[in-house]
Amino acid sequence: MVAAGIHRAMVTVRNSKGLHMRPLELIAKKALSFRSQIFVTRGNTRVDAKSLLHLLTLGAEPGMQLEIDATGEDASEAVEQLVVLIGSEFESIDHT
Questions:
Q1: Which of 9, 17, 41, 84 could cross-link with 67 by S-S, CB 3.0 to 4.6 Å?
Q2: Which domain holds residue 19?
Q3: Based on the structure, what is the number of domains in the chain?
Q4: What are phi and psi of 48, to 5 degrees?
């Protein structure tokens, strides 16, 4: 049973280079803009989305599935925005 107030979604890493330092920095910054607790899970590894160092431990490569979950007053919006960001190709940062 899912507890009330927990929002979850799956997302596929689409960036051809995976989630390296620059995209992860954007993800952590976006997560920090929300009051909710936000986590990203890959397999058995669940990390705080607001921590760049924790996100680095995911080793998220292209095509990998990640789960985003959040609890708190803005959890739904947080999950929605992070799914869009992680599912993007981060083209503007990879070509600079």
A1: 41
A2: 6-86
A3: 1
A4: -70, 120
pLDDT, one tens digit per residue, over 31-53 is 999 999 999 999 999 999 999 99
Write the CA distances from 20 to 1, 7, 84, integer angstroms: 34, 25, 17
Torsion (CA) 70, 77, 53, 94 in degrees, nearest 10: 140
Residue 91 lies in a domain: no
